[in-house]
Amino acid sequence: MVTTNSSVNNGVNVEALIAAREALTQAPQAAQFKWRAACEWKDGTHSHSTVESFFGLGQEQHRKKTFAFDADHPEVFASEDHGATPVEYVLVGLASCLTAGIAAVAQHRKLQLRSVKATIEGDMDLQGILGIDSDVRNGFDGIRVHFSIDADAKREDIEALVAQSQKRSAVFDIVTNPTNVTVKVN
Amino acid sequence: MVTTNSSVNNGVNVEALIAAREALTQAPQAAQFKWRAACEWKDGTHSHSTVESFFGLGQEQHRKKTFAFDADHPEVFASEDHGATPVEYVLVGLASCLTAGIAAVAQHRKLQLRSVKATIEGDMDLQGILGIDSDVRNGFDGIRVHFSIDADAKREDIEALVAQSQKRSAVFDIVTNPTNVTVKVN
Questions:
Q1: How far is B106 from chain A (nearest CA, A)?
Q2: How far is A50 from chain B (nearest CA, A)?
Q3: Do B117 and A41 touch (CB under 8 A)?
Q4: Of A146, A161, A148, which is closest to residue A111 (Cα–Cα)?
Q5: Contact residues on chain A for B100, CB-CB shorter than 8 A
Q6: What is the average pLDDT across B161-186?
Q7: A38-70 pLDDT, tens digit each
Q8: DSSP E strands: which ranges in chain A?
Q9: Are B88 and A35 in contact (CB < 8 Å)?
Q10: Distance between CA atoms of B149 and B157, rounded to whole angstroms?
């Protein structure tokens, strides 16, 4: 029993995404994107970051608004907790990337979502970043994501949605595989 | 000529961090932290995430406030741009982590910072996430961070600050090295 209900609406314009895929297959140069942020130190461990422009489809793209983010360390680190910690931003990025992917794949598969909720948790041994034990890494030992999904779909179809979202997720790839980062001082 | 000016103040309580390092060296169990976020799908690729509690120093820690974040895809992806894209959250996390580290290391080395600004850019070939070319990864091909730092310090000391921040950065480690992520459906 495959449900193919054309009235399924998860708010994702799959037709536009399929058209984009076809267009970019013909013009791979337009698929080269550059994503950006700017960060300014405020005081202590507190910084203020902004996100606005990016490059893609062969040209600079400007948003109508600028997104702004404060980051800081919490009070237990003798900081002032002016914003989420940097590692929590990574968790937000990963959870939101998988969630957007679930909505897009569900639309493509004509499965109506009613609600999608995720909790995400990363384990960190602070002996790494504090330099206590050089065998302990600075980042997460591991990350667990739990989804609760209410949809007009069988459990196996919901599990397949989540699996396909992981397979196509940019942030899942960034976290699970190494990326080269160069840091320079102007 | 090493400057050891005790009036240096970058707003980082290095004494408290050193005391924490000593305490956690004696009690490594207290160094086991769990960082968290919760994410709820809104519509289309738009989601709303919150960050509040974490576990550390042997107990649940609750902040005085909840940090909230919208994530979405931009209009060129036929989305509504209700928030930064998930991959931009990763860039914010990386830039803010390195920036906090620079302030902490500068305080420890008694170097007065006047300003620290970073720009960060990640290259992405959308042929990956769109499934056009299976040889193209979903995430960033590479990330470049450029710091402009004004400080009472020689250029080589500033470069050493940035290098030490990278060495101790949780998010730098997360992005440059693989992390295990498990995704489950409740």
A1: 10
A2: 8
A3: yes
A4: A161
A5: 44-47, 71-73, 86
A6: 98
A7: 999 999 999 999 999 999 999 999 999 999 999
A8: 32-43, 46-51, 54-56, 59-61, 67-71, 113-125, 142-151, 181-185
A9: yes
A10: 11
CB A106 within 8 A of CB A163: no
Is A24 in contact with B130 (CB distance < 8 Å)?
yes
Closest chain B residue by Cα to residue A121:
B36
- Model pTM score: 0.96
pLDDT band at A3 (very low <50, low <70, confident <90, very high): very low
- Give the max Cα distance, chain A: 61
CB pairs under 8 A between A and B: 462
Chain B residues whose CB is inside 8 A of the A92 CB are: 37, 39, 49, 51, 69, 71, 86, 89
ipTM of this complex prediction, to 2 decimal places = 0.96
Beta carbons of B10 and A44 less than 8 angstroms apart: yes
A62-113 residue pLDDT tens: 999 999 999 999 998 889 999 999 999 999 999 999 999 999 999 999 999 9
> For residues B150-184, b (16+ Cβ closer than 10 Å) or e, as one string?
ebebeeeebbebbebbbebbbbbbbbbeebebebe
Beta carbons of B40 and A89 less than 8 Å apart: no
Residue that has been written with the tokens 């609600």 in this structure:
A115
Q: Please classify residue B104 by burial: count the beta carbons closer than 10 Å to its beta carbon, then call 0-12 exposed, 13-18 middle and 19+ buried.
A: buried
Q: Do A10 and B184 touch (CB under 8 A)?
A: no
What distance in Å separates the CA atoms of residue A55 and residue B16, rounded to the nearest whole number? 42
**Residue labelled with tokens 């040209």:** A59
Distances (CA, A) of A86 to A134, B157, B172: 21, 25, 10
Measured between CA atoms, the residue of chain B closest to residue A137 is: B173
Place of tokens 């998860």: A10
d(CA B92, CA B172) in angstroms, rounded, equals 12
Return the amino acid letter for B46. H
Round to whole Å and give the CA distance between B161 and A71: 20
Cβ separation of A171 and B102 shorter than 8 Å? no
